[in-house]
Structures are given as C-alpha cells and as structure tokens.
Amino acid sequence: MSATKTKNENIVEIKNLKKYYPITAGIFQRVIGHIKAVDDVSFVIPRGKTVGLVGESGCGKTTISKCILRAVDPTSGEIHLNTEDGTNNVADMREKDLRPLRREMQMIFQDPFSSLNPRMNLFDIVSEPLLLNGIKSRIERQDRVEELLSKVGLRPEYMVRFPHAFSGGQRQRIGIARALALNPSLIVCDEPVSGLDVSVQAQVINLLMDLQDELGLSYLFVSHDLSIVRQISDSIQVMYLGRLVENGTPDEIFSSPKHPYTEALISAVPQADPDVTKNHQTLIGEIPNPSNPPDGCYFHPRCAYATDECKITNPGLTVDKSGRSFSCHNAKDIKLSGLI
Amino acid sequence: MTTKNKLDKETSILEVRGLKTYFYTADGIVRAVDGVDLDIFPKRTLGIVGESGCGKSITTKSILRLIDHPGRIIEGQVNLKGDTPKDTVDITQLKNNGTQLRQIRGGRISMIFQEPMTSFSPIHTVGNQITEAIRLHSNLDKIEANELAEDWLIRVGMSNPSQRLKQYAFELSGGQRQRAMIAMALCTNPDVLIADEPTTALDVTTQAQVLDLLKEMQEKNGMSIIMITHDLGVIAELADDVSVMYLGKVVESGTIRQVFKNPKHPYTQALLSSIPSLATGHRERLPILTGTIPHPQARPKGCPFNPRCKDFIEGTCEISFPEQEIIEEGHLVNCHLYNK
C-alpha cells in the first residue's frame, strides 16, 4: 500500500498518542508523578466508517476524543487529519492554524440537557457555528437551519423555541443538527445515547446510521454500552487504563475475544432474554488508580487467567495473521468465550 | 419456576390497589399515577419498566408516601401485610410523619436510589449514616450499631470496612457508594427493598457486580425487591415478575417469561424490539417506537398508547381504556386487541 493511498482511506490516523496529567505537590507545585490518561495509543478511523471505543469509566476514552478535537493538548504523539486539502497533524498545530480545520471535526455530547444553552433558541444554537465561520446573512443561515432540522427529523417551525421545550431525544437531535452545520467529515460521539430511554435510543442510533449513509460521515463512537457499539461500529477498540488491549471487527470481538478483559465486558452486558444463562464472570474489584497502575499487564490483578509473567512484563500489542491486535501473554493458551 | 407461577394474591407481602397520585400544578392536573395495581410477593423481585415520565418512580414514592406538594395520593390503597391478616396496614391511611409511618420508612420498606452521590449526606461519614439508620429502627447503642454497620459492609463485599465507615461518600468510587447504599438500606432487615434505577449511573462491569450483590442479598435475607429501570436487560436478569407501565397505568404484567417471551401489548412488543441485543445484526436498523410520550396535560383519550400504536383500532382505542384481559394465569394485559 502506498503512502498516498492510505491518506485517502483514513480520515484520522493516530500514532503513539500520549496524554499525561501531572500530579503536583507542595507550595512550588513540584511534579511528583503523572496520570497516564492515554498511554501510547495508535489506531485509524477509516473514511465513512464508524470506530467504536469501549471501556470502563476512567479508562481514557473521552481523553482520546478530546485530543482528536484538540480540546486538550496531547503530551506527545501524532494525530493526522486527512482532509481534501491535505494532511495535517492536529496534535502539533498552533491554535491559529487549527481554526479552519475545526469545522471538519465536530462533537455530539452525552448529556443533551447541559450541552445546549438554555437561553438560546434553536435557531441560535444551530446557526452559531455558521455565524462563527463567516456566514453572516440571516436568510442564508435560516435556510441552512431549516434544512438541518428537517434532516434530523425536527420540524423547522421549532426554530424559535428554546431547549426546555424538548424531550431528551429531541435535544439530542438538536445537538446532532448543530454538529452537522458545517458539513464536517468526522463526528466524535461521546456516549450519545446513554442518557436516553431505550425507545429513543433506537431512534437516535437509526438517525446516526442514516446520516452516515447520506453524508459519508466518519464516526468515533465512544460508549460503554457494548450492544450499541456492536450495532453501529465497523471496528471496535477496547481500552483499559489508558491503553488499547484489543481491536477487531464487531463479529471478531464478540464471537472470539482475545483479551480476558473483553470477555468480561461482554459477559457483563445484561441480556433482555430470561432464558440466557446468567453467569457473568464478574470482574473482581475496580479499575486501578491510573496514577499508580500495577506492574506488568495492567489488567492482571483482575484477570482470571493471570500467570507469573503477567505480573512482571507488559505484553504490548501483538498482531495476528488476520490483522487483529491484542495485548495478552496467554492469548494462545486460553480459550475465551464470546457471545455465541 | 412452575411452582412459583402459582402465586395467588393472598400470599403477597405488599399490594397496591387502584393507586392514583395526581399533581395539582398551575397548568392543570398531571395524572402521574392513574390507577395502578401491583402485587409484590415474598422473596421475589418485581420489575417495573417503562419510558421516563411513565410514573414508575412516582408509584414507588407513593408507596413510601414520599410525595411532595403539589402532588397528592388521591385514591387507592397500599397494603403492607403483617403476620396475620389483621396486621395489614394501609400506608396511604397513616398519619403524616407519624410513628407508624416513620417505622415503615427505612424499617420494613427501604429504598436505594439511582445516584448514590446525591443520596448520601456529604457532611456525614458513611458510618454515621448507616448507624443512624440502625439506631432509628432498633435499641442498639452506638458501639453495637457500629459493629453491625461494619458487619453489613463486610456482607456487601466492601474491602477494609472499618476504614470505610470513617470515610465520606465522595471518597468512595461509584460502585462502592452503591454498595454502601445497599448496606444502609438492608441493615434494618426490611421486608421490601425498592431499588430505583440502582445501576443506571454505573459501568457495565460494576452494574454486574451490584446486580449479583442484590441477588445474593435476596437469597440470604429473603426480602422482596421492587426494581425500577428502563434497562430491559437488567430486568430480565433480576426480576421474577414484571409490570410494564405507560402514562401512569400498568398495561401488561406477568412473570418475566410470560412478558418477555410472549409480549401481548403493542407497547411491550415495541419496547422489546427496540433494544439492540448482542445478537442484533451489524448496522441493522432497529424497529422504532414512533413518536414520543405525550405532554402530561395532553393525555390522549381512551387507551393512552393509541396515537403511537401500530395496531390501532379506529372507533375503539380512542374511546375507552381497555379492560384487563387474562392471557393465561398471572399474565394480564390491558389492550383492546384481546377484548372480546
């Protein structure tokens, strides 16, 4: 594969991304350690596809999405954003140069209640990105807002209303309309449906899939809900304590997980079927403190298959023949059960 | 399972009959709970499902008389059974904040909440709050109560219990807080535990731990659980019986197998089909429930579900609320489709 070809295929390429937060102490704020929120993560988001990022809270999912959008500055590593105008390393750009690129990447937030300004009406909310990016004519903006609202399934008459008049699902649609305003190529969805009712969840997921087909969007879909990630993603990255532990297509991940953490995550998902045997292998304990991670494989204190080797050395990612990577010393020796 | 199905109404520990809780707001009357019947049997779990705004939480709050102005219980009975039929008390008839009511709250009926952070006092230690509950409902002195509290923390699987008693809620992680909450609710040996979305704010892995804990506690202490959630997976995992609520009314009830395997009401059918299970195909569109819950002041006439129903029968559904029909023993549904 030539270098130019990969450029066209992937919208985002992340290489060795690290984000460390310093821990300080004393009156001089001396740095005494680091919280490794994201520790050496590499993956790509193919154009027009959805990459699911799963893991428990505190594993660094949101930090990665914030780094991609440069809402936080990464400590090191590269984030290449491939647009029609060429490739830019977002991780290493000055704020001024970054501005024109910001319209290419947008975000949808988890909480539709706190992510919409209660004192702005729908027109103001959805047209704000247009105004900030130089579309000054009110008529032009009005047309665009109308188009966007009907695209996400809201009536254009709603434009004059305020967010409090809408239900959770409708507010999430408003958030989606705002994200779409500037024709982005990448949308980072940070737990977009976790606060919603099941019936509304389905509506929003269907809408996201329809918009992707229609507009050729690429999604980074961050969630801890595995059944939704499986539904929407083309590939899945599983994260634990700032590191990627496994990736693969949804079928690969769910039918034959290669990492004990993935297996535990899958078995923890409650199934809406009273006949499914309910023996989840409950993970013991909680996610360790990222400022003081365990030695060796980060997962070993909670792992049912841990051996002595796991306590000493970190396995690193191994790539198998089919291109799946996973980070486990015992992947060959243990048999993990997936869903089927 | 088959013997359990043969439960008659006589054996229930708590029965709710024709409960109506209305809110008298400036804009008009909101019929939050509009004639609800429930039966809670000893050592069994009743799941209440429905979208937000359907009255699930208000129903359980009414059971404990925790309804604030402008809400009022205007009709119905909540009968908490004693050892003999004449020990039965109707909670709705008890004196406001009288001794009897205070003894039931936290004594015979306990409650755990969705967000354990806000339901613990931030200025008292966890130990303080658990011993307070114990001492309110027993004659133990401080030292004995403290020992019992420590004992309960061990039972709910907290590490380092004596240390935990001295900590504040903010020092604990989400899962630990929920464990402490469960310990606080169970330390008075209640007959009924009301769990209002106890795992919604938790990670799947922690959720699995909390569900396992609730099951284990039920086996050991023999209490009944009322479980409110919109997560049908959690219901399938924990509940023995289910009541499906829509706009303040129970529209279908039965054992978990009857309702989930053979849903009769179009609303139950729609809810069950709108969740992506781990078995749903990749990028398959989810069948959705059209529309949203109507405005509380604009409840539809007749069957409340009629504007969203796929099996709408003109001339019937918008006229009257359907009579209860018995599908088979224990499986009840309110739908005109089954009225002869």
What's the CATH H-level homologous superfamily of chain B? Answer: P-loop containing nucleotide triphosphate hydrolases
**What's the CATH class of chain B, please?**
Alpha Beta
Q: Would you tell me the structural class of the helices and strands of chain A?
A: alpha/beta
Helix content of chain B: 25-40%
- CATH class type of the largest domain in chain A: Alpha Beta
- Tell me what portion of residues of chain B adopts beta-strand conformation: 15-25%
Number of helices of chain B: 12
Radius of gyration of chain A: 21 Å
Give the oligomeric state: heterodimer
Strand/helix succession of chain A: HEEEHEEHEHHHEHEHEEHHHEE
Radius of gyration of chain B, in Å, reads 21 Å
Share of helix among residues of chain A? Answer: 25-40%
Q: How would you spell out the order of helices and strands of chain B?
A: HEEEHEEHEHHHHHEHEHEEHHEE
| Number of E-type strands of chain B | 12
Report the uncertain regions of chain B.
1-6
What order do the strands of the largest sheet of chain A run in, or round the barrel if closed?
6-7-8-3-9-10
Largest beta sheet: strand ordering of chain B: 6-7-8-3-9-10-12-11
Classify the secondary structure makeup of chain B into a structural class. Answer: alpha/beta
What fraction of the residues of chain A are assigned to beta strands by DSSP?
15-25%
Mean pLDDT figure of chain A? 88
**Low-pLDDT regions of chain A:** 1-7
Topology:
The complex is a heterodimer of chains A (340) and B (340).
Chain A (H helix, E strand, L loop, with lengths): L2 H7 E16 L4 E17 L3 E5 L6 H8 L7 E8 L2 E4 L5 H8 L2 E4 L13 H11 L5 H14 L16 H13 L5 E5 L7 H18 L2 E6 L2 H7 L2 E6 L2 E6 L1 H6 L4 H9 L39 H5 L5 E2 L5 E2 L14
Parallel strand pairs in A: 3-8, 3-9, 6-7, 7-8
Antiparallel strand pairs in A: 1-2, 1-4, 4-5, 9-10, 11-12
Helix pairs in contact in A: 4-5, 4-6, 5-6, 6-7
Chain B lengths: L1 H4 L8 E12 L2 E13 L4 E5 L6 H8 L7 E10 L8 E2 L8 H6 L4 E4 L3 H4 L6 H11 L5 H14 L5 H5 L8 H13 L5 E5 L7 H18 L2 E5 L3 H7 L2 E6 L2 E7 H6 L4 H8 L50 E5 L2 E4 L6
Helix pairs in contact in B: 5-6, 5-8, 6-8, 8-9
